[in-house]
């Protein structure tokens, strides 16, 4: 099959490319970074350098493809997250329609149907194609974004150090926490990008009919259980996942200078996770869990953490 992969050589697209190349497919990888051209070629794929904001580029790239994996990278600089996601989704839908692609896998989020800014899945409904909407849980790799927070560095870390300094000093004598307006004993499905890549690879070659939604997860646990696994790996077994109010979370994100619309969307998404609605929807779909455990990822996380 001729398969197009967007997302450059990111956390999902890189292992996905490796799987599909190994299976003997002709794989083209889309990247906006010309410097990725050599790495893409070394992976056994064909580079297509251009932006998903360019509909003509996408249409040309998708032409004659048997299947396309479409993902929209999260932008922390766009002032309006919802508008950005809608524009990129519309670009994909237009290009896929003009190219006549019949097998499409769209990366979404497990709270996409609950968060207004993320809800762009319907923009693909009018395509005459088989479409799988992927709704993965919370990525293991999201923990990388918390390294400065765990070490007590950065604006968000300073905000939390101030917020919890007295109590935390008594408990641990040093900074060491994760945070969010979900956390504590909230149960969450975490997922490895490698397990997502396996699931996407399966959907790209299934050639099913109609539209389906597939949830993907690797392991379910409470946030504090996850924090303990990560903390133990980095020598901080006391690591806790502090549950903030929506107001506190929004204040912290604004202090970190995130655009207001993005900050609001992130708070809304995490509020849906705290409510348990995302987990409820996940269980209703009865997905098969992946193979990669958080403890396995924690060793990779520790190596990166200690280099920072």
TrEMBL record:
InterPro entries: Ergot_Alk_Oxidoreductase (IPR051604), NAD(P)-bd_dom (IPR016040), NAD(P)-bd_dom_sf (IPR036291)
Domain NAD(P)-binding: 7-122
Gene3D superfamilies named among the record's database cross-references: NAD(P)-binding Rossmann-like Domain, UDP-galactose 4-epimerase, domain 1
One family name in Pfam for this protein: NAD_binding_10
Descriptive protein name: NAD-dependent dehydratase
The organism's taxonomic lineage, starting at the top: Bacteria, Pseudomonadati, Bacteroidota, Sphingobacteriia, Sphingobacteriales
């Amino acid at each position: 099959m001729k398969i197009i992969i967007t997302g450059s050589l990111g956390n999902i697209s890189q292992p996905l490319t490796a799987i599909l190349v190994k299976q003997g497919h002709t794989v083209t990888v889309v990247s906006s970074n010309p410097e990725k051209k050599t790495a893409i070629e070394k992976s056994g794929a064909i580079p297509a350098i251009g932006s998903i904001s360019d509909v003509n580029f996408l249409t040309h790239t998708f032409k004659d493809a048997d299947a396309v994996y479409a993902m929209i990278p999260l932008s922390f600089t766009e002032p309006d997250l919802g508008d950005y996601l809608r524009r990129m989704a519309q670009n994909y839908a237009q290009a896929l329609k003009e190219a006549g692609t019949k097998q499409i896998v769209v990366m979404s989020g497990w709270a996409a149907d609950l968060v207004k800014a993320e809800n762009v899945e319907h923009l693909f409904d009018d395509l005459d194609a088989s479409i799988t909407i992927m709704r993965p849980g919370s990525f293991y790799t999201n923990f990388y974004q918390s390294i400065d927070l765990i070490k007590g560095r950065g604006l968000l870390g300073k905000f939390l150090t101030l917020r919890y300094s007295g109590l935390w000093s008594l408990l641990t004598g040093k900074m060491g926490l994760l945070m969010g307006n979900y956390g504590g004993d909230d149960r969450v499905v975490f997922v490895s990008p490698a397990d997502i890549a396996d699931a996407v690879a399966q959907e790209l070659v299934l050639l099913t009919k109609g539209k389906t939604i597939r949830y993907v997860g690797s392991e379910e646990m409470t946030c504090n259980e996850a924090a303990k696994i990560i903390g133990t790996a980095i020598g901080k077994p006391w690591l806790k996942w502090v549950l903030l109010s929506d107001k506190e979370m929004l204040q912290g994100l604004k202090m970190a200078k995130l655009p207001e619309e993005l900050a609001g969307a992130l708070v809304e998404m995490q509020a849906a996770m705290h409510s348990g609605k995302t987990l409820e929807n996940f269980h209703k779909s009865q997905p098969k869990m992946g193979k990669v455990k958080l403890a396995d990822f924690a060793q990779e996380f520790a190596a990166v953490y200690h280099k920072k």
